[in-house]
């Protein structure tokens, strides 16, 4: 990928609901996308842990953009299925999502997203998601 494509993906990722949540992009490479979220009070649930919906959104969206790095600008990526496991509550100052394409077909792409909470410079794996996506031609949207 060239620098223009990387900059496009970084900006494109942070729109709409992900922008509202406060997601930030840390790393973009072919088949890899990494993001972070500085935890705010509004990201938590009644017990003070990061809400499962925030984690699921981050895992899905970041996995989608890992897939998006593998197609041309003539395609868009849509989630067709995802499954998520939660291992422990996410607490701390930051959560980080690391997503990687694990299988790329012509139309169907599978990404794996791992979400870590970071507290006092210690990372803990809190969740893992499998995201199945479809590469859809831009022309299908016009």
From TrEMBL:
**Enzyme Commission number(s) of this protein:** 3.1.2.20
UniProt GO MF annotations: fatty acyl-CoA hydrolase activity
Q: Which Pfam families match?
A: 4HBT (PF03061)
Keyword Aminoacyl-tRNA synthetase in the entry? The reply is: no
Kindly give the InterPro entries that the UniProt entry links to this protein.
HotDog_dom_sf, PAAI_dom, Thioestr_dom
List each copy of the Thioesterase domain by range.
48-119
**What UniProt keywords apply to this chain's record, in alphabetical order?**
Hydrolase
- What catalytic activity is recorded? a medium-chain fatty acyl-CoA + H2O = a medium-chain fatty acid + CoA + H(+); a fatty acyl-CoA + H2O = a fatty acid + CoA + H(+); a long-chain fatty acyl-CoA + H2O = a long-chain fatty acid + CoA + H(+)
Q: Which NCBIfam families match?
A: unchar_dom_1 (TIGR00369)
Q: Give the protein family.
A: Belongs to the YigI thioesterase family.
What is the name listed in the Swiss-Prot or TrEMBL entry for this protein? Medium/long-chain acyl-CoA thioesterase YigI
Organism from which the protein derives = Desulfonema magnum
């Amino acid at each position: 990928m060239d620098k223009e494509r990387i900059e496009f993906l970084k900006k494109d990722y942070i729109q709409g609901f992900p922008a509202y949540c406060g997601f930030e992009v840390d790393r973009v490479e072919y088949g890899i996308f990494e993001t972070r979220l500085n935890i705010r009070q509004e990201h938590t649930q009644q017990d003070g842990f990061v809400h499962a919906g925030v984690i699921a959104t981050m895992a899905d969206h970041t996995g989608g953009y890992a897939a998006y790095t593998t197609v041309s600008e003539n395609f868009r990526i849509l989630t067709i299925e995802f499954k998520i496991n939660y291992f422990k509550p996410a607490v701390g100052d930051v959560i980080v999502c690391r997503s990687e394409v694990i299988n790329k077909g012509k139309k169907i792409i599978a990404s794996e997203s791992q979400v870590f909470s970071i507290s006092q410079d210690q990372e803990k794996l809190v969740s893992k998601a499998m995201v199945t996506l479809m590469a859809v031609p831009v022309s299908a949207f016009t």
